[in-house]
Automatic annotation (TrEMBL):
Residues reported in the UniProt entry to bind Zn(2+): H151, D158, H243
Family annotation (PANTHER family): D-ALANYL-D-ALANINE DIPEPTIDASE
Swiss-Prot/TrEMBL cofactor(s): Zn(2+)
Pfam families associated with the record: Peptidase_M15 (PF01427)
Transition state stabilizer, annotated site positions: R106
Name of the protein described by the UniProt record: D-alanyl-D-alanine dipeptidase
Signal peptide interval: 1-28
Keywords: Cell wall biogenesis/degradation, Dipeptidase, Hydrolase, Metal-binding, Metalloprotease, Protease, Signal, Zinc
Family matches, as CDD domains: D-Ala-D-Ala_dipeptidase_VanX (cd14817)
Cofactor note text: Binds 1 zinc ion per subunit.
SUPFAM superfamilies tied to this protein: Hedgehog/DD-peptidase (SSF55166)
Length: 269
């Protein structure tokens, strides 16, 4: 009986020591999570009228699952970029449109997630929608995936236009049949945005902003977005009609890795 008690006490002591060792390391880990510089803001705090459909917080993206680093579905930007976007929104509201963002600041860990996915040639679950005509082995060579992204610098965003009054976009159901992102608007995944000729994140040359095959209303919609944003300091990436960077960037050479969450911004304000 005494021996059992001694053994039990030894086990309890060992367990207590183990818990004590684990607790500080967990606390230290949460304490060392990167924080945003003070001039990063939640877009909603600058302009709550801009629609946010943060695709990488959801499984409706080219990977098919929520992307690392997106802890909350929110748009985070440097303040100058957010304020310029607010000015664009004011102009567009008067014309019967609203902006909608799909992605804003993107942590480096999210970019790393994309890179891991791109190297796994067996995972082609979302090919049918996002890259039907591109061999996955070509994603790096063709420039669709890279190890660094301007989004991680905090002044780049992916954006589109929605005609007012905005209708809701139905939720994506994982496993549902996929339709090519360049299919006619009434066939591809329903998005409440205006018709830009392709869906967001369409890995295809039709996504090039000035692709000559895009004509009529689709071309006019791209031109309205481009002229509005470029008039306020944004620069379009020619290969992606949705991709804009505010210039001059406050952090042109820094790639941040703090998570997308309100907590990342808390200590900065």
């Amino acid at each position: 009986m005494t021996r059992l008690t001694t053994v039990a006490r030894a086990l309890i002591t060992a367990l207590a020591g183990l818990l004590a060792a684990i607790a500080p390391s967990a606390t230290a880990q949460s304490r060392t999570e990167p924080q945003a510089p003070k001039d990063f803001v939640a877009l909603r705090s600058v302009d709550p009228t801009i629609i946010q459909e943060m695709r990488y917080f959801t499984p409706h993206n080219f990977v098919g699952e929520r992307i690392d680093g997106y802890l909350q579905p929110m748009c985070v930007l440097t303040r100058p970029a957010a304020e310029a976007l607010h000015q664009a929104q004011r102009k567009l509201l008067r014309q019967g449109y609203t902006l909608k963002v799909y992605d804003c600041y993107r942590p480096q860990r999210a970019v790393d997630h994309f890179v891991r996915w791109a190297r796994d040639l067996d995972d082609q679950a979302m090919k049918g929608e996002f890259y039907p005509n591109v061999d996955k082995s070509r994603l790096f060579a063709d420039g669709y995936i890279a190890e660094k992204s301007g989004h991680s610098r905090g002044s780049t965003l992916d954006v589109t236009l929605v005609r007012l009054p905005a209708k809701p976009t139905r939720p994506y159901r994982p496993g549902e049949p996929l339709v090519p992102c360049f299919a006619p608007e009434n066939e591809r995944f329903p998005d409440n945005s205006v018709d830009m000729g392709t869906g967001f994140d369409c890995f295809d040359t039709l996504s090039h902003t000035l692709d000559p095959r895009i004509q009529g209303e689709q071309r006019a919609n791209r031109a309205l977005l481009k002229s509005t944003l470029e008039g306020l300091g944004f620069v379009n990436l020619p290969e992606e009609w949705w991709h804009y960077t505010y210039k001059p960037e406050p952090y042109p050479d820094t790639y941040f890795d703090f998570p997308v969450s309100r907590k990342s911004l808390t200590s900065a304000h």
